[in-house]
């Protein structure tokens, strides 16, 4: 490999790994912040679910145009705009004073996250043509690393004092998201690979995807897997605080242990997926995640560590499915990624709404003797839904495997 090409490769690795690290931080500092937001702004669980759904819509909106934007202005400029947008959103969150302004600021953040998701996925798909499962899991390991440290640092930072005033969730968001400007340096120094396909080929492959049942099964399976991942990230701290009466710091630590398991799985299990098969691996991972998320709900607080251990199953689902996607659709990969992420974004809007309103709906049915007890039952119902989405992911992936095997194309 020529020195110039090798240098380019390592710079792009730095962009991908650094990008996923920031991505993990930006998405998962919300765990410790949500209970404080909810309390300060007096938000119901349904309204909190609505906030997360609107965020998912912002993510979805960004996914619909990011591939087009990359084609028009290039991956480098798009990446710079993305990181700047995420940093600006932190300032907007700091100055948000009510639910409406918070929605706008969060929406901006998730626009940035959506652009980052598409950019990193496209760069990785073009770069990792060999050992795809291993390299994608390694890339997403850095997302897990950011996700692991984010809740602990965020919880501690919220308690910092500045001029005798607590930093709180607003100040924490502004400081943490300011880190988004750091990856701009390697982005500027890197030379990005471009896809050598014509627009007509892209459009044709997109139309084919719309008619391909396996493409829709991938969308459904990935939607369920992402719902499990983001549902745990958003609701685990709240669940432990309200159901198990844990403090914010202890609950945030449990979320960090979840992401440590999540991160470790991505670091270690990538080579396993390449050898065992992507579809079969996802089936095993999903069942593991679902079962280990369900047990503590019914067994009680003494088994809460199983919530964290479920991360070993949740972690590899997304990158392994993206590896399957890249191998299944070797022509028009950009279109396949865009189609899948957009559709998963739509599913994310729906499932985020469902989680919030399941919690609120079950709470309002007043199964408990007090409002607190009813809310605890509501939280348990919402978390059961999160766990079951992992089982749905396993079922859909089994169907993908069955169809691919029938066609003689096992992945």
Write structural notes for this entry:
With about 400 residues, this protein is mostly helical. It has helices spanning about 5-30, 30-40, 45-75, 75-95, 100-125, 130-160, 170-180, 185-190, 200-210, 215-240, 250-275, 280-300, 305-310, 310-315, 315-330, 335-365, 370-405, and strands at about 160, 165. Strands 1-2 form a two-stranded antiparallel ribbon. β1 and β2 (about 165) form a beta hairpin. α4 (about 75-95) packs antiparallel against α7. The longest helix has about 35 residues, at about 370-405. Residues about 200-205 have low confidence and may be disordered.
Strand element count:
2
Provide the residue-averaged pLDDT: 86
Give the CA-CA distance, first to last residue: 29 Å
In spatial order, strands of the major sheet run 1-2
Low-pLDDT parts are 198-204
- Strand percentage lies at under 5%
What is the N-to-C succession of helices and strands?
HHHHHHEEHHHHHHHHHHH
**Structural class of the helices, strands and pairings?**
mainly alpha
Shape: globular
Helix content: over 70%
Summed up, the helix count is 17
Please give the radius of gyration in angstroms: 20 Å
Biggest pleated-sheet summary: 2 strands, antiparallel
């Amino acid at each position: 490999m020529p020195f110039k090409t090798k240098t380019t490769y390592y710079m792009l690795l730095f962009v991908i790994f650094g990008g996923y690290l920031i991505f993990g931080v930006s998405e998962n500092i919300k765990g410790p912040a949500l209970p404080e937001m909810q309390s300060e702004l007096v938000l119901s669980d349904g309204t909190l679910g609505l906030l997360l759904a609107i965020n998912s819509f912002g993510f979805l909106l960004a996914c619909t145009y990011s591939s087009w934007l990359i084609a028009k202005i290039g991956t480098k400029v798009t990446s710079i705009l993305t990181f700047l947008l995420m940093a600006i959103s932190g300032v907007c969150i700091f100055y948000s004073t009510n639910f409406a302004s918070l929605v706008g600021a969060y929406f901006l953040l998730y626009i940035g996250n959506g652009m980052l998701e598409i950019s990193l996925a496209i760069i990785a798909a073009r770069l990792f043509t060999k050992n795809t499962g291993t390299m994608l899991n390694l890339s997403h390991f850095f997302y897990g690393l950011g996700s692991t440290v984010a809740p602990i640092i965020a919880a501690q930072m919220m308690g910092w004092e500045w001029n005798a005033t607590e930093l709180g969730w607003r100040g924490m968001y502004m400081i943490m998201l300011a880190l988004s400007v750091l990856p701009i340096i390697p982005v500027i120094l890197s030379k990005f690979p471009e896809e050598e396909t014509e627009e007509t080929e892209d459009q044709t492959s997109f139309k084919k995807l719309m008619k391909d049942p396996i493409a829709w099964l991938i969308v459904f399976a990935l939607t369920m897997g992402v719902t499990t991942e983001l549902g745990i990230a958003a609701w685990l701290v709240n669940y432990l605080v309200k159901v198990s009466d844990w403090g914010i710091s202890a609950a945030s630590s449990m979320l960090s242990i979840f992401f440590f398991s999540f991160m470790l799985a991505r670091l270690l299990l990538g080579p396993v997926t390449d050898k065992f098969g992507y579809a079969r691996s996802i089936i095993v991972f999903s069942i593991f995640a679902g079962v280990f998320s369900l047990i503590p709900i019914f067994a009680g607080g003494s088994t809460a560590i199983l919530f964290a251990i479920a991360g070993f199953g949740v972690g590899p689902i997304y990158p392994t499915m993206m590896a399957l996607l890249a191998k299944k659709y070797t022509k028009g990969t950009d279109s396949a990624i865009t189609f899948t992420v957009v559709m998963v974004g739509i599913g994310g809007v729906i499932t985020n709404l469902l989680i919030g309103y399941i919690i609120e709906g079950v709470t309002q049915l007043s199964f408990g003797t007090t409002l607190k007890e009813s809310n605890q039952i509501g939280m348990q119902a919402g978390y059961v839904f999160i766990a079951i989405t992992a089982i749905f992911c396993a079922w859909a992936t089994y169907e993908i495997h069955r169809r691919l095997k029938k066609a003689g194309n096992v992945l």
